[in-house]
Amino acid sequence: MKAKVNKIIPFSNVDGPGNRTSIFLQECNLNCLYCHNPETINICNNCGLCVPECPVNALTILNGVVQWDENKCINCDNCIKICKNNSSPKIKEYTTSEMINKILEYKNFISGVTFSGGECTLNSKFITEVFKEIRKYGLTCFIDTNGFFDVEEVFDLIENTDGFMLDIKAWDNEDHIKLTGKNNFKIKNNLNKLIELDKLYEVRTVIVPNLLNNEETVKKVSEIIVNTNVRYKIIQFRKNGVRLELINAEEPSKKYMESLKEIAKKKGVKNIVLT
């Protein structure tokens, strides 16, 4: 099996417990207006628009396919900035064995691995095979997901994962459609299912004033996770690096973020993180 990888961060302390290797897979099944890495949404369509924008000729077209020379690349990201397809030509394809070997390069310095995206559960079979092997080395296995998946289709992945970090972007379905392009029925169901299976480590909600009913989302999530050990991370929307659709959106104030934390606290949630 193979998977398309957007990037690998060897050491991260924000993608689960401890020092972790974070692997971002390419392609997503949602289209969030506030996405901060929209270049992970789609697969490159080889239009070639990015090729002349590269200042060091790290991009070429061969037989109609855009080729990326990692050794020449200076990571200026001109190719990503010019892309109209929410994708990137700077993708590397890994087999499961190649990915396992890559992770094991860092095993003496990390407590575990987190797969993210894009939406990594689209490659559930690939990740499952990787997790089965790296768990033998005492590494913990985490998934950062938007929750838009069918439990039955990824159950083997769930069984081999130590913890899920789940995005609850908006509780109101119309808000969710407006924000992501799809409904949130599966996501709400998976929130409860992952709790039932004791696989939910963290819920994450990004706060955008005047766009979403943030108070309702925080209230409803808090009511569901209150009697669990699940951490609730309430995240301040920031315009830096965001897509053009929300470039002029308002960032939430510290006072407003504290008020949302207070809602969760009053509902009985004990582990709340503001970022």
Description:
This protein is α/β, with parallel strands linked by helices and 275 residues long. The chain is built from eight helices and eleven strands. The protein has helices at residues 78-82, 96-104, 124-134, 155-159, 173-180, 185-196, 214-225, 254-266; strands at 2-12, 20-25, 59-62, 65-68, 92-95, 112-116, 140-145, 163-167, 200-207, 231-236, 272-274. α2 crosses α3 (124-134) and α7 (214-225) runs parallel beside α8. The longest helix is centred in the last third of the chain and has 13 residues, at 254-266. The relative contact order is 0.13.
Largest sheet: 9 strands, mixed
Stated plainly, the CATH topology of the largest domain is called TIM Barrel
For this structure, what is the CATH homologous superfamily of the largest domain? Aldolase class I
What's the overall average pLDDT, rounded?
Answer: 96
**Topology as a string of helices (H) and strands (E):** EEEEHEHEHEHEHHEHEHE
What is the SS-derived class? Answer: alpha/beta
CATH architecture of the largest domain: Alpha-Beta Barrel
Please identify the top-level CATH class of the largest domain.
Alpha Beta
The end-to-end span amounts to 36 Å
Proportion in helices: 25-40%
State the total count of DSSP E strands.
11
The order of strands across the largest sheet is: 5-1-2-6-7-8-9-10-11
Q: What global shape is seen?
A: globular
Quaternary state of this entry equals single chain
